[in-house]
Amino acid sequence: MERNKTYNRRKICIFGGIAFLCGFFLVGRLIYLMLFQHDYYSKKAIDLQQRERQIKAARGEIVDRNGVVLATNEAVCTISVIHNQITDEEKVIAVLSEELGLSEEYVRKRVEKVTSIEKIKSNVSKETGQKILSYQLDGVKVDEDYRRVYPYNELASKVLGFTGSDNQGIIGLESKYDSVLQGQDGTILTFTDARGREMGDLEESRIEPVEGDTLKITIDYNIQAFCTQMAQKAYLQKEADSVSILVMNPQNGEMLAMVNYPEFNPNDPFTLIEQYSEYTGTEEENNYLNEMWRNGCVSDTYEPGSIFKIITTAAALEENVVSVNESFYCPGYILVEDRRIRCHKTVGHGSQTFEEGLENSCNPVFITVGSRLGASTFYHYFEKFGLLDKTGIDLPGEAATIMHKEENIGPVELATISFGQSFQVTPIQMATTVSSLINGGTRVVPHFAMSITDSQTQTVQEYTYEGLEGICSEETSEMLQYLLEQVVSDGGGSKAYIEGYEIGGKTATSQTLPRSQNKYISSFLGFAPASNPEVLVMVIINNPQGIYYGGTIAAPIAREIFENILPYLDK
After folding, report:
1. Is residue 31 pLDDT above 80, yes or no?
2. Which residues make beta-bridge pairs with 259?
3. Which residues are catalytically annotated?
4. Do residues 177 and 449 touch, judged by C-beta distance below 8 A?
5. What is the pTM of this model?
6. Which fold has domain 52-189+201-217?
7. What is the CATH number of domain 224-291+303-447+466-568?
8. What is the tens place of the pLDDT at every residue in 149-194?
9. Domain spans in the chain, listed from the N-terminal domain onward
């Protein structure tokens, strides 16, 4: 009996001790949570009670060099629903279907979806948003938003780019400077109960959005608009595949205009233009959308043809392997190993000086000069002039030059390179390289961005671009200015001549690959004033029908551009 009592007392002590320890632990844990974890659990409680909705920031504008707005915003609404807060599903479905022009099935699927918040439609007009608000539907949210707007529709679309549904830049400057333009979204915070319903007695709090900064670019609206008209004219008259026009300042690389016609409408970027409309709704639609958005001046390469003779001339002058008055003879062709490479004038130019050879764009003359330079020296000048590097233009998707490896340049390759065939460059590369050779020898960086200003119009950043000096001598540069002026005044570029102005330039007609398709690229690159270049114009017509010579169809387009923009720029 005494033994049982002792056993029971021991059991009571053990259980009592365990209960005491558990109580002590729980009290300690409670003290720890209340004193040391108070902030953490307070935040967790608030987070569970709060529902956060985003307020979109207005995207920064893009303006031209004179302040003309090229990309701006329009106030719109985003309509969303919160499932747990809806008290009359059928009414919500009926109203949203009718006011937003959506199918009842589409709206029902989203209204019945149990999520924290479900977007029904974005880019809704303010008027429609206000009308939906007037129904006072529980669980329906109408939030302020912005839609990107391009006031001049197709103008410079492949330079400016466009934005997606989330207002993020997709291509062009919108993509390149997205972090500058984007701004900082704000938020609306509301308090909810355990069932997710808003607690009406507690005020919602707002963190206001910060709008994006304004990007000022080098484009001149008037020059861009006129060049677009000229590109359209050439496109229609010559039934071409496309027309590209570049206008830049060869002294500093500022792009005054860049046209890739036909352009697309960035206000409706996912609708194929007429050229590709037959592919709408097909498996190939996405491929043609990308083709439609593609900036050919920057992302496409081509054989430059005779415009490249400017580079061959510069290298030959630098190396002193030719003088301008030296005599050459052209019988209409030249033999290189087992190849007969003909001149565009099949009966030949006969006896001529180097200066006349450039005016006549004579292939045998430049093949001879190229052979004097040799593959190794010529390749050295490709590198020195910057042809083997990208230009660094501030647009995404720049393509690199496609050139033979030095060790693979034999006599035939050297001959064809000398007059601009068997390799490919981008139009912006050709314009930049020639600019660098005629401006005194400084390799410029082509660019669009000038400055950034904030919402108070205070300048946040001025963009600067350092050129690389000494890529050719001033003497070579001055001689090129003289020679290329003679090409326009007396040679193959005469259709770009304007009385009273010094215009220098070079024509080109090149054949695309495969040669059997008989497709050509007609082009002209010119600058003015020839003795002190301040404006460079490049015109490229892809696959023109009928007459396709650059001197006949591209040079007159450049002349009209010069006739209009030189007085406008007071040059």
Report:
1. no
2. 245
3. 306
4. yes
5. 0.87
6. Penicillin-binding protein 2a (Domain 2) (3.90.1310)
7. 3.40.710.10
8. 999 999 999 999 999 877 899 999 999 999 999 988 887 666 555 4
9. 52-189+201-217, 224-291+303-447+466-568
